C-alpha cells in the first residue's frame, strides 16, 4: 500500500513508523503540511496515489484542519478528523469521556477569571488549571492557594491567546506518583507503561521514569470505552490510579510511542503498521 | 546504518558536523557544536537549517 504520512517534524516516533512501513515493502509518501496548499475541492498533488493517510502532525492546529480536508477529499485518514477535534481540545475530551460514562476527573470550564476563581474555590486546594489546547504538560498549573490562583488567572487573562480565556479547572487526583499510558488501536491495547516522577506532572516528555506494565482487564475495558468515546483510531490513553480503580484524564490522537517502545517487549511500530494494514484492507473492501 | 555518519554544514556556525547517515527530510538533529536544533531540509545533499521554535500547540 501507499501510505501518506502527514508531518511537519520527523520525531523518533515517525522514524520508527517509516522504517517499519518501508521494511514491509510499503510505499511511503511523506507530506510536509507546511509546504502544501489545501483547496476545498481537490487534494494537492502530493496525495496522488496514496491509499491511506496517517496524521502525524506535531502542531495540533494543523492536525485538526488537515485531517478535515483529507477526509473531505474522500481519502481515508487516521485518525479521523472528529477524533482529532475531540482529542485536541481538553474540554471536548473531558465531555466525550463523561458522556460515555468513562470515569474522568471532575472538571469545569469558565470564561472569566471571577468565575474561574469560584470554581477553584469550590474544588478546594490543590486543584489544577490546564490550557484547553496543549500537550507535554506545558502551562499546567497545580494551584495550592487562593493567592496563587488569583495571580495565575490574571496572567492567563492578560497574556494569553483567546483560548487561555477558556479556563479549564480540574480536581487534583492524588495518584501514587505515577500515571499510566496505554497505546491502543481502535480500543485494543498494544502496550502500556507507567510514568513515574517526583513531580506532580508525569509526562514522559518531562523526563518521567517509564516502565512497562501489564494491562489488566479493568484497564482494557476503560481503554476500549475511552477510545470509542473519541471515535477510535491510534490513541494514547492516559489513566491515573485512584486506589481501587482508575480515572481516564486524557486521550491523545497523535500519540508518541518511542518511550513505550523502548521499555515494552511489544514492537509498537510493528503493531501500529499491522493495524494500518488492516485499516487499509477494510477501506478497499468497503470502497 | 544507524551508526554510520555523514558530514553536513552547521547552518549556524558554518562548521562541518557529523550526523547519522540515515537522516530523513523533516528530522531534527541537535548540533554537536551549539546544541541548537537543526532541521534536515534535504538529504541529497544533506542541507540543515535552524529548526522552528517550539510552538504552543505542539504535542501529541
Structural features, described:
The complex is a heterodimer of chains A (287) and B (60). Chain A has nine helices and 13 strands. Chain A is α+β, with helices and mostly antiparallel strands and 287 residues long. Chain A folds into three domains: 2-86 and 275-286, Rossmann fold (3-Layer(aba) Sandwich); 107-171, Dna Ligase, domain 1; 174-266, ATP-grasp fold, B domain (D-amino Acid Aminotransferase, Chain A, domain 1, 2-Layer Sandwich), CATH 3.30.470. In chain A, the strands form three sheets. Chain A has a five-stranded antiparallel β-sheet, sandwiched between helices. In chain A, helix 2 links the parallel strand 3 and strand 4 (77-78). In chain A, helix 3 crosses helix 4 and helix 4 packs across helix 7. Chain B has 60 residues and is mainly beta. In chain B, the strands form two sheets. In chain B, strands 3-4-5 form a three-stranded antiparallel β-sheet, with no helix packed on it. In chain B, strands 1-2 form a two-stranded antiparallel sheet. In chain B, a hairpin with a 6-residue loop joins strand 3 and strand 4 (37-43). The interface between A and B is medium-sized, with 29 and 14 residues.
Name the CATH class of the largest domain in chain A: Alpha Beta
**How many runs of DSSP E, i.e. beta strands of chain B?**
5
CATH architecture of chain B: Single Sheet
Mean pLDDT of chain B: 92
The share of residues in extended strands of chain A comes to 15-25%
The residue-averaged pLDDT of chain A reads 95
Supply the number of structural domains of chain B: 1
Quaternary structure annotation:
heterodimer
Amino acid at each position: 500500500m501507499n501510505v501518506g504520512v502527514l508531518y511537519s517534524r520527523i520525531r523518533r516516533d515517525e522514524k520508527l513508523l517509516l522504517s517499519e512501513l518501508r521494511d514491509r515493502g510499503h510505499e511511503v509518501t511523506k507530506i510536509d503540511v507546511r509546504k502544501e496548499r489545501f483547496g476545498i475541492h481537490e487534494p494537492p498533488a502530493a496525495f496522488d496515489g496514496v491509499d491511506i493517510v496517517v496524521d502525524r502532525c506535531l502542531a495540533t492546529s494543523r492536525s485538526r484542519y488537515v485531517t478535515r480536508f483529507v477526509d473531505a477529499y474522500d481519502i481515508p485518514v487516521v485518525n479521523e478528523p472528529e477524533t482529532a477535534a475531540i482529542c485536541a481540545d481538553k474540554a471536548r475530551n473531558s465531555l466525550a469521556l463523561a458522556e460515555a460514562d468513562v470515569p474522568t476527573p471532575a472538571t469545569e470550564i469558565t470564561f472569566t477569571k471571577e468565575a474561574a476563581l469560584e470554581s477553584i474555590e469550590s474544588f478546594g486546594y490543590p486543584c489544577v488549571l490546564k490550557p484547553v489546547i496543549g500537550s507535554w504538560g506545558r502551562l499546567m498549573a497545580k494551584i495550592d492557594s487562593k493567592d496563587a490562583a488569583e495571580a495565575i488567572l490574571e496572567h492567563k487573562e492578560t497574556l494569553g491567546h483567546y483560548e487561555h480565556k477558556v479556563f479549564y479547572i480540574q480536581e487534583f487526583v492524588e495518584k501514587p506518583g505515577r500515571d499510566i499510558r496505554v497505546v491502543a488501536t481502535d480500543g485494543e491495547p498494544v502496550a502500556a507503561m507507567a510514568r513515574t516522577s517526583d513531580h506532580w506532572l508525569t509526562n514522559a516528555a518531562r523526563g518521567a521514569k517509564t516502565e512497562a506494565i501489564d494491562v489488566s482487564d479493568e484497564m482494557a475495558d476503560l481503554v476500549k470505552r475511552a477510545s470509542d468515546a473519541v471515535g477510535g483510531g491510534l490513541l494514547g490513553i492516559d489513566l491515573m490510579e485512584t486506589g481501587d480503580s482508575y480515572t481516564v484524564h486524557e486521550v491523545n490522537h497523535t500519540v508518541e510511542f518511542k518511550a513505550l517502545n523502548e521499555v515494552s517487549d511489544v514492537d509498537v511500530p510493528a503493531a501500529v503498521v499491522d493495524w494500518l494494514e488492516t485499516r487499509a484492507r477494510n477501506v478497499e473492501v468497503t470502497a | 546504518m544507524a551508526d554510520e555518519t555523514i558530514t553536513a554544514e552547521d547552518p549556524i556556525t558554518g562548521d562541518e558536523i557529523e550526523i547519522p547517515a540515515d537522516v530523513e527530510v523533516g528530522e531534527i538533529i541537535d548540533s554537536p557544536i551549539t546544541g541548537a536544533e537543526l532541521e534536515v531540509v534535504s538529504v541529497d545533499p544533506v542541507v540543515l537549517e535552524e529548526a522552528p521554535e517550539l510552538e504552543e500547540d505542539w504535542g501529541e
